[in-house]
Amino acid sequence: MRFNPFRHFALKIVSAFIAFLLWLIVAGEQPAERGLRIPLELQNVPLNIEVVDLPIETVDVRVRGPSGTLSRLGPGDLVAVLDLQSARPGPRLFHLTPEQVRAPFGVEVSQVSPPTMALRFETSASRIVPVAPAIVGEVAPGYVVSKVTTDPPTVEVVGPQSVISQMSEALTENVSVEGATSSVREPVTVGAASPNVRLKNPQRAIVAVTVVPAPVERTLERVPVHLRNIASTLTAQSLPPVVSVRVRGSKESLARLRNTAVTAFVDLSGLGPGVYELPIRVDPTTSFGVAGMQPAVVQILIE
Question: For 102-131, how does the pLDDT look when each residue is reduced to its tens digit (9 = 90+)?
C-alpha cells in the first residue's frame, strides 16, 4: 500500500492542534522551586548486616519545575534511595546526592539535606526466646487465673548482635481476662519490644488462660492432736490437746467439712520421758489443703 500523507488528514490536524495547546499550557507555566520532605529508602543491605538506630527516615529536598507540576506532587512521588551495598560492621558515612532521588519527569532535584548520612552497622544474630503473653484485666470476683500457656512457647528473633544478646523474651498483643468466669483462648500477634529486632518467621500465637473458681478458706476448730509412735511402756499428753486448722479448697469441698476430716498428729518416735516442744503434722488429703495451724507447735509431756 502506497503512503498517502493526506490519509486521515482531519484527525492529524486535530492531533496537532491538541499537541500545540498542551505545549502552550506547559510553556506558559512559570518555573518554580519548592521544598519537600520525602521518605528515605535503603537498598542492597548486605546479608548478615543490620542497620542500628537509623537516625532519620525522611530527608528534605529542593525541587524545580513548572509550577503546575510541582503543585500536583504528592506523597511518594519522590523517594531518596541510599545504596548500602558497601556497608560493613561499624560506623559508616554515605553521601546523598540529588542523583539518588527518584523524581517524576519534568522535576529537577537541586538539593538534598542532609547531604551525608552517618549510619552504624552490626553483624546479624538470632536467638530463641520464650513468648511472654501480656494478660490485662481482672477476672470476675471469686475466680483466679491458674495457668497461662502459649502455642508456640518460643520464637526465633533476628537483629543486631548487641540487641539480641540482651533479649529475654518476645511479647504479644494484650489478652483481656476482664470479668472472665471461664478460660480464655485467643490468637495474638507476636513481636519484639525493640524496633531493631524482628521475628525470623512472622507468626501468631495462641494464648490460653485457664480461669478457675478461687479457693476459699475455712478454719476448723478443736481438731484433736493424735500422739503417734510412743513407746508401749510410756504415756504422753499434748498441751493443748486440740488445735485450730485452716484449710483451703473449693467452696463445694469445704461446705460440709468437719473437724474430724483433718488428722493432726505429733510423731514421738524414739523419745523417752521428758517435756518436748514438737511441731504438728497432718495427713495429706486430696479434696482440700491445709494452709496453717494455730498453734503450730505443742508441748508434749512423756512419762
Answer: 988 888 899 999 999 899 999 999 999 999
